[in-house]
Specification:
With about 350 residues, this protein is of the alpha/beta class. The protein has 2 domains: about 140 residues, Rossmann fold, CATH 3.40.50; about 150 residues, Dihydrodipicolinate Reductase, domain 2, CATH 3.30.360.10. Helices cover about 40% and strands about 25% of the residues. The chain is built from 13 helices and 15 strands. The strands form 2 sheets. Strands 8-9-10-7-11-12-13-14 form an 8-stranded mixed β-sheet. The protein has a 7-stranded mixed β-sheet with strand order 3-2-1-4-5-6-15, with helices on both faces. The radius of gyration is 20 Å and the shape is globular. The protein starts with a strand and ends in a 13-residue tail after the last helix. The C terminus is likely disordered.
């Protein structure tokens, strides 16, 4: 078993730098190369970490052989290079979202399976203590007879790159790029919704322009069963108010509330309520994530929190259903979309 996995980082945006710092600290990786389309940024970072700098993603992939490729680059700038890396038997960790749509994510998963390498999705939120605690409380049935799940996601619209508004490049808007962590959390603890119905819009001045821009506001309703439904409200805005991401799970005799740093379980009287407070930054969650990814490669038989690409197809199917519903005006079925994951023999890809 290798002590260190050789690795390269693709994309040195804010999340890429966070990924790189965490990889350097966990002790599982030997950083051999970094790549970014900004030459000065790539060279400065490479000098700091004593590794090779690249501005051409393709060149990094085809001229080297690494155990792992850690991808923070935007999907539309590196999709073909990610495919090449998988075919060259790199284990790939892609920061969420894994792709611009379900079919692209499915292609990555199928390629990784055929090449017998790992394609994992880095969703740091899953590794925050609050989300781990909430998942365990639900799993251990501290809240029973759940009948309603509600989620709220409000983010700052400032400093967004221009391509985020282009559906061809971004794949989606607030749902795809801001709500992925909360959708992952819901599907981590609850079954795939039977139906998804969505309404979405943006602040373009007229209807024609709205058709060519990604959404900045969305409402998504989910039917899990006849006894369990869910609702997600999401928005990006420039006005007052701090960003917020929260999840509430309503049971017959209890209410579970989850935010990034706090979990509250209310049951019966106020004296029966329990609260878990956490003070940790994104670096802590990212280090846990990377340790889990390294462990999934060196000890693949061991269970872990890391989300495989196949598991994340469920998230992508829900997103695909939401966008399709927004166009058709009718509820859509994620399970039907997941049928695309069936291989020629008729056996479903493991989800």
């Amino acid at each position: 078993m290798k002590d260190h996995l050789t690795a390269a980082i693709l994309g040195l945006n804010e999340n890429g730098r966070l990924l790189l710092e965490a990889a350097a600290k966990v002790g599982c990786f030997e950083i051999r190369a970094v790549a970014d389309q900004d030459q000065q940024k790539a060279e400065k970072t490479a000098l700091r970490y004593q590794c090779q700098a690249y501005t051409d993603y393709r060149q990094l992939v085809v001229q080297n052989q690494f155990d792992c490729l850690l991808v923070a680059a935007d999907a539309h700038t590196c999709d073909e290079h990610l495919r090449t890396a998988l075919k060259r038997k790199f284990n790939v960790l892609k920061l969420a979202p894994p792709a611009r749509g379900f079919e692209e994510a499915l292609e990555f998963v199928q390629t990784s399976e055929s090449e017998k390498v790992s394609f994992a999705v880095a969703n740091p939120a899953r590794f925050r203590s609050s989300y781990i605690t909430a998942h365990e409380l639900i799993l251990q049935r501290h809240i029973e007879h759940v009948f309603l799940v509600t989620a709220y996601c409000s983010t700052d619209a400032g400093d967004r790159p221009a391509w985020w508004s282009d559906p061809r490049l971004a794949g989606g808007g607030v749902l795809m790029h801001d709500c992925y962590p909360i959708i992952d959390q819901i599907l981590w603890s609850f079954p795939l919704p039977q139906q998804v119905y969505a309404l979405n819009t943006n602040q373009a001045p007229d209807k024609k322009q709205r058709l060519y821009l990604t959404e900045d506001t969305a409402v998504v309703s989910m039917k899990f069963s006849d006894a369990l439904v869910g609702n997600l409200v999401a928005t990006r805005r420039n006005e007052v108010g701090a960003p917020e991401m929260s999840l509430r799970v309503y049971g017959k005799n209890a209410l579970l509330t989850v935010t990034e740093n706090c979990v509250t379980l209310q049951s019966g009287t106020e004296q029966d309520s329990q609260e878990w407070q956490y003070e940790e930054d994104e670096q802590v969650a990212m280090q846990r994530l990377l340790s889990g990814f390294a462990h999934s490669i060196t000890a693949p038989e061991a269970p872990g929190l890391i989300g495989t690409g196949a598991q994340n197809l469920a998230n992508m199917a829900v997103l695909e259903s939401a966008y399709l519903s927004g166009r058709t005006g009718f509820p859509e079925e994620p399970a039907r979309i997941l049928q695309l994951g069936r291989n020629p023999s008729g056996t479903a890809t493991s989800i």
